[in-house]
Amino acid sequence: MFELMLCSLLTVFPDYLYRRYAQGKRIGREINLYTVWYELRWGITACLLLTISLITLIFYFHPSTKHVTAIFRTVTILPETVGRVDEVYVDNNQKVEAGTPLFRLDGSQQQAALETARRRIAEIDAAADVARTELAGVDGLIQEAQGAYQMAVDEYEMKAELLKTDAVARREVERLQTSIDSRKGAVDSALAKKKTLETQIAVLLPAQRASAEASQAQAQVELDKTLVRAGVAGSVQQFTLRPGDIVNSMLRPAGILVPTEAGRVALIAGFGQIEAQVMKPGMIAEATCVGKPFTILPMVVTGVQDVIAAGQLRPTDQLVDVQQMGKPGTLTVFLEPLYGGELEGIPPGSSCIANAYTNNHDALADENIGTLQWLYLHVVDAVGLVHAMILRMQAVLLPVQTLVLSGH
Fold it and tell me: In the chain, which residues have pLDDT < 50?
């Protein structure tokens, strides 16, 4: 509308003043609907052409958008397990630091598992003490068995010598031989028992203790999961938990945590797709927000998303019809303040308006630039100046428009 009014002031309005005051024609007589079109047809046609050209220059070389906001990401407060709330440590809209406890779930089951693991470790330690005691007793049994075995061997050797002189019965010597084999088996049994106890002490019981310690660590981790802490510093929102509530990590989150720095670093703007060829990182831009009225924020383009979000495709069980994506999407552009502290006082999520300006200084400084190109670039810069003036008018009218739309 502003472009049409400006072009009318340059074309139709001077023509009307000439016919009204220079030629003395009167409104309603010589100047009517038919004569206006017939006599001002060249001015109206020139006005339309000039309007279209001006709009093209503005929106192509100096793009503007009303789709600008300080987008921020929230962190969902979710436990890693399902349970009933036992204690709540914070209130809604409370500021918290990273690591601050938020609430705790009932951990009686996890506490019981932890206590069981601890008792199992104590049981294994007791079994190790018993095995060491038995090992000391086995050493005595081995000495006793070896002594009895040696006595049987000595007696057998003595009786064997006497058998040569028929001083003892052969049956007695055979009995001693059997006794030697029996005593040898007792020694082997005692040595095997010692080996078993040594293996238990050196391998089996340490392995069982390590397994019990792993179970204890797992039980401790499960118990720690019942205490939910803030992952980042921020404010707790929509937090209405009370002791006794059931929290489900899939169906029922506990609340939302808004990070402190969320939405206070950059603005995200959605420009028309036609500006994809001129929007480049480093372009100077300006913005005005409802949350900070009557203020122009100098910005700089720091990034341009190389895809259009409207064309995003997710695999489903149905084929996607391209007609469903008929609404054109916008080109996502990231704007950051040119100077520090410009976004202070602007609540994240505020609605804003932004203009971006094409830089022609390098082209104008070129010594080989032609006259027509020089004139054209100056016109583009002049149009950019007009667009900047429009933004300043919008900075004044935007809060008023917001109040009217909100019903105040």
Answer: none
